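Recap from last week: sequence in, structure out.
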Amino acid sequence: MSDNLFEIFRSRFPEDSSQPFIETNDGKVHTYADLDRITAQYHNYMRSLGIKREDRIAVQVKKSPEAVFLYLACLRAGVTFVPLNTAYTMEEIRFLLSDAEPTMVVCDPAKEKNINRITQRLDCYSVKTLDALGNGTLSEESRGLSTDAKSTDVHGDDVAAILYSSGTTGRPKGVMLSHRNLARNAEALHTAWQFGPDDVLLHALPIFHTHGLFVAINTVLMNGTGMLFHAAFDTKDVITDFARATIFMGVPTYYTRILSAQKLTAATCKSMRLFISGSAPLLEQAFNAFSERTGHSILERYGMTEAGIITSEDPQKKSRPGTVGWPLPNVDLRITDKSGKVVSPGNVGAIEIKSPGLFSGYWRMPEKTSSEFSLDGYFRTGDLGKTESDGLLTIVGRKTDMFIAGGYNVYPKEIEVCINALEGIIESAVLGMPHPDLGEAGLAVIVVPLDGRNQTIKTIRRLLKDKLADYKVPKLLVVTDALPRNTMGKVQKNELRKTYRSRWTEYLETV
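Predicted structure tokens:
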């Protein structure tokens, strides 16, 4: 069998190509025959533009079936797919495009003018458009092309996708994922979550990020079945479609919003087989409340962009709040102390892994890639955890300051760099704080000189919104005279948490 991930998916397609692959909110159905036809046309369109194997295509578009087909067409053509968060500002996009150096950029029509200004300075063939309805120059110009296309021969180690993750130094890192990485993770999930011929996935996640793009869609394709495809998460619509689905994947924020709806009952969930939560820790109270209301346990799993899914609870066993399951069969996981020695069960240490689903490295950052691996080849996840005697994993914290807001990784350093660059700001510290809806959200403590206090919080927030995606902008900003430091000069964020815990509680009462 070919190493091309598209061909691996094709081997799992249903014999009857008229079977549905995607059904949208408005009832429009895209079949597996449509998938084959449209990806072939996109493949041929890329070739007509001179786009070659291992070239990169950067994509910042709204969620649509056509955006999924573009991803699959890139796999088919051996082209590297580079999805970009739709919330990124032009300033963020400018850096990412200069780093990725894509041959083509596909964007929403409303952003075409600004994207063109950026790409004029880059070695980029063209900018094409695609909107939420699947219309734009990409679909229009490819529509009349041949619906026959041979998938490009690729090596399993060829890079299928690059996903950008904000860096702790303020510079985003491009996580390179190969055809083999993605295939092995999808195969493992298909088995672990016991997908069968009657399963239908309810998809309400964004598709520019590992969870919605690879964990959800790739697993469906490995199963050769269909999904109910919501353009965005809407509590009422999601609960309504529980009647027609069997599996739902969400972030903790989704579950807290679902729990706020009176419509959620055991009856509305009677056709569901599996509820899965990931991308951030699920609060125990949400876990328990969901079980009481529906009779279903929420299955938790642990993963990251660099490795896909690492551990998962067993669908056949009762889930336990606070745990994230066992390593997938193809994952070798260990917990180590500061010296790198493996610790015994029950002891907290650093989580390190080996897996065929593990990323190929960081794009154009060989030294960073090397530093993230131990001498014997284990990837240092940066997370802290402990295992039980049977291997069940509990995550207890993160070695870095990163926090997760609404399912998205947020790195304080990137935000601090933006704040510190503002006129009149001396320095800042950003930390993640518990949030009942988002899981975590940002608190920014900002040092401003006494004679510069006219730099209002409102002004700072407005300036940050111009530079950062909304989920990165701190929910609460406070001004102070100085930041607490230890003898080595390092800011003591734990002290800031203690100092501003009551202010944070007051803020939450106003939300």
